[in-house]
Structure formats: C-alpha cells, structure tokens
Design goal:
Length: about 70
C-alpha cells in the first residue's frame, strides 16, 4: 500500500495548493509537521499562478492500493 502525505496551503488568491510527499514517516508527529509547514511558509520559495503560499490549511495521509489484473 502506497502512502502519500499531502500538505495543503492557501495562496494569495485564497485557493488551496498542495505539496505531496511520497513514503512519509508514519505515524506523523503533528507538532513536527506544523513546524515544517511553517518553515515552508517562511522560506517563501513556492509561487503558484494564484500567488505565494500565505497560510497552512491542513494535511492528510493518503493511502492507495494497487492490484494488477491478469489479462486472459
């Protein structure tokens, strides 16, 4: 099962923008995650078509199952 950590931010236009991290450490420490997201905001290195990242919106762990299907 593949896991992805999705970090959600708001940009200048108030739209949600996401950063996905493959194979994150699980379980995620909420305090460490909040600190990392604050560091991303402070560094101000990401710019979208809707402007800079301006606020944290949330985060979520996404799990995905992939099953191959044999063809006859």
């Amino acid at each position: 099962m593949a896991k992805t950590l999705e970090l959600q931010f708001l940009n200048t236009e108030g739209k949600t923008v996401k950063i996905n991290i493959d194979s994150p450490i699980d379980p995620v420490d909420p305090a460490t995650l909040a600190s990392a997201m604050d560091a991303i905001l402070a560094a101000n290195v990401f710019i979208t078509t809707g402007g800079e990242f301006v606020a944290k919106k949330g985060a979520r762990m996404i799990e995905r199952n992939v099953s191959d299907i044999g063809l006859a």
